[in-house]
Amino acid sequence: MAGTADLIIGIDAGTSVIKAVAFDLQGRQISSASVRNAYQMGPEGAATQSLARSWADCVAALRGLGAKIADLPARTAAVALTGQGDGTWLVGAGNAPVGDAWLWLDARAAPTVARLVRGKAERARFEATGTGLNTCQQGSQLAHMAATMPETLARAEVALHCKDWLFLNLTGLRATDPSEASFTFGDFRTRRYSDTVIAALGLEGYRHHLHDIVDGSQPTVPQPQDAAAATGLRAGTPVSLGYVDMVMTALGAGVHTGDAGAACSTIGSTGVHMRAMRAGNVTLNDAGTGYVICLPAPDMVTQVQTNMAATLNIDWALALAEDVLRSFGPVPPHAELIGRMDAWLAASTPGKLVYHPYISEAGERGPFVNATARASLIGLSAADRFPDLIRAVVEGLAMAARDCYAAMGDMPTELRLTGGAARSGALRQVLAGAMNTPVRISAREEAGAAGCAMMAAVAIGAYPDMDACIAEWTTPLLGQPEPPDPALVATYDTLFPIYRDARAALSPIWDKLSDARAAQGA
């Protein structure tokens, strides 16, 4: 169909990879291109990323896609954006970056979070946003910058998120979407900024750093000539600002298909666990944790709990094996080690060990918030071997998922899975057993890019509404339900309360270890 605008490009800007994915108007994935992104870790838990590098990588991904698809500029009906959530991407005069972005991995705001959560206005802030305060969020990070580096904020004109920065470069418009705006600075019921929230964060003097809220399933913005010259696409191509990657991935994978009780978990670098519901049906927990994130559908939101690290724990365990193997010669490719996961799980006994998957330097944010939380392995004996460690790590991810869903109410009646780890049949059985619910995986390869492309499909009129788009893009790609193993259900019903009791008991230990490391200058 050369010369016909029959494709939508979804851009998914992750922390380490930026992908550009082409879909036809019926949701079939045509081709994709990706570029490795990079971030830096620094003192005091800093995690930063270059704004200029991220834009260059986005351009490279689009150019790479153009090299694979003939006549891509003429065939592109729209471009849509999603990306890593939270974090702070400061932009100043002339839309120039003000330093590097603070990522969602950045833990420097921990002292400010500890102060704010003790404030009198914290519960009111939580009631409006539905979101627990943690070091990942732009509100926490801006409050910490205001207290410790006000000169940096003085040079900034606007605070963006990752996808907002790319949208600015693609369109010239400073904007954010309703999802990140409401869970950071607003009210999920109105999808607008909230004076109560901004005051609770102590940011009344910085409100001018916030920007317009644009729902990309409604208006699009034409790409100007200078952006078109960079990307290789046509000037005037409609650009849709998608929602944050968590809900875009869940939308593409089936979190909202009209099936009561269904939920969606993404088991990727982080673990994201969510269920869709009407905004008026949200019940907020007493602990003040989790997220409520808007969906691009009227009055629909997702209630979310997120583990800071999911497959990062598996990467850590495999790195131990790689370190040993490196002493003896060439190390097998990481993908080959991943391919052995199911065999290692088959060679181990369920429920022997307890592993808490808090491997991130930023601690944990769901279903509790503690920047000092760290991973632990309990119950080791001399008889345990590497397969037992791998099983403990995988079971720890399942226990963490169950912990998150328990904080939101009843267990799901069906769990839709996405993320790289969902390819493991053994891991799916562990998750099904841990929550005593069938699991289904989506055949959708790039769910995040698909989710934002679906918004663009509605915005340009390819579908009358999001439900119609879901019926064609998402529902047919769900696989058959995989029922839980009754023996695993019984094992994990015994293991789960031990997991929770142990993490509660370890909380003061984490704080003491953090103090000890600080005293040693570590």
Task: Explain what you see.
This protein is an alpha+beta fold and 522 residues long. Helices cover 40% and strands 19% of the residues. The protein contains 19 helices and 23 strands. It has 2 domains: 7-246, Nucleotidyltransferase, domain 5 (2-Layer Sandwich); 255-441 and 485-522, Nucleotidyltransferase, domain 5.
Write the layout of secondary structure elements.
Blueprint: E1 7-13, E2 17-24, E3 29-36, E4 40-41, E5 47-49, H1 51-68, H2 72-75, E6 76-83, E7 89-91, E8 101-102, H3 110-116, H4 122-129, H5 138-148, H6 150-155, E9 158-160, H7 162-171, E10 175-176, H8 178-185, E11 186-187, E12 192-193, H9 195-200, E13 212-213, E14 221-222, H10 225-231, E15 238-241, H11 245-253, E16 262-267, E17 271-278, E18 291-294, E19 300-307, H12 311-326, H13 334-339, H14 341-346, E20 354-356, E21 376-378, H15 386-407, E22 414-418, H16 425-435, E23 439-441, H17 447-459, H18 466-473, H19 486-519
Helix content: 40-55%
Kindly report the name of the CATH homologous superfamily of the largest domain.
ATPase, nucleotide binding domain
Q: Which structural class best describes the helix and strand composition? A: alpha+beta
- The gross shape turns out to be globular
